[in-house]
Amino acid sequence: MWDDFISRQIRRTNRNLLLIGAGILTVLGLLLAAGWRDTYNFIFGPFPVQNSQLVAISNPDAPKHYFLKVRGEESFATGMREVDAGNHDKIRAEVVALVVEKRLLLVKTPTDNHQLEFTGILTAVPAELLNDLVRKEEAKNPELKGAFLPFMLDATGFRKGDNVWVAIAGAGFGLLGVFLTGLSLRRRLQPENHPLLKVLAKYGGLQDVRMRIDSEIRSEGGGEKFGSMQITTNWLIHAAAYKTNVMATRDVVWVYPKVTKHYHNGIPTGKSYSAMIYDSKGQSLEISGKKDSVPKLLESLQRRMPWVLVGFSKELEALWLKEKPQFFQLIEERRAKLSPAMR
Fold first, then answer.
1. What is the DSSP string of 253-272?
2. Domain ranges, ordered by start, for the chain
3. Is the Cβ–Cβ distance between 260 and 272 less than 8 Å?
4. Residue 278 — left, alpha, or beta (φ > 0 → left; ψ -120 to 50 → alpha)?
5. Full-prediction pTM beyond 0.85?
6. H helix and E strand count, the chain
7. Whole-angstrom distance, CA of residue 63 vs CA of residue 45
8. Closest-CA residue to 109 (of 122, 93, 91)
9. Each residue of 167-189: pLDDT tens digit?
10. CA–CA separation, 274 vs 258, rounded Å?
11. Pairing relation of β-strands 117-123 and 148-154?
12. Beta-strand pair 47-48/67-71
């Protein structure tokens, strides 16, 4: 089994992918476990319920099933409404009383909804409803004392608004965790298909290329280092957290500094600095650094590879994007001019 520099990089990135994927799944699992009742009802509800079972409930937080489909015998308007905070003329919901097994279930429902079947979640009766409706009705009509169930049904929509976005986000993170974990395991089981090895194969026989990289790393003490970037005589190696990029120095053709301004609500919050590196095989690297380290990296690249074009311009960008053969011809002309001095 190989134990060279490239193998160590592959193991490192696989480990990091596995850790982040497993970490996401663990956190998501803990959140789901903490809110298992909500998750269960959101996914598998609504659940039909017998009226006899419904009236036997004393605490809305107790039943496993609380996202229910309820059918009553009659319904009555209570006159209680929920209005928009910014526009009191806009009615958002109203409360009806649904007769269930000679008991009264308060149902919060969209306006003008006086049907006998409702779908919603069991909740505690708010203090406002308890004082302004239940107790007043019991005081006016003593025969209603004890008729109101000690909970209500919110039928304004469980699977909408924030709940839907939370579910979508949870599903997205779950898929991401599964993908990253699976990617790591697949690369462990099939190391020969690792993308880094496919890149290295472009430079010649795979075993020979790996040996040359490993030899240079050892003989040059890891090479010149700029953060996660290592530069040896013949190789640029960028060891990012989840990916290792390798370029041959002879293929580097264009480098320039990049400054990104950051804003929050239109207010400048700072800048980030990086070096952009392009090679003749179509690869590009963005190496993040500090304000003073990026120029030093570019100086090192220019010193080691004097043929490269240094600096950004719209003309060079257009040439790179639309006329690569001309771009590469320009590089070869620079190499030809420099070749006597490089001998």
1. EEEEEEEEEEEETTEEEEEE
2. 47-157, 194-342
3. yes
4. beta
5. no
6. 11, 15
7. 13
8. 93
9. 888 889 999 999 999 999 999 88
10. 5
11. antiparallel
12. parallel
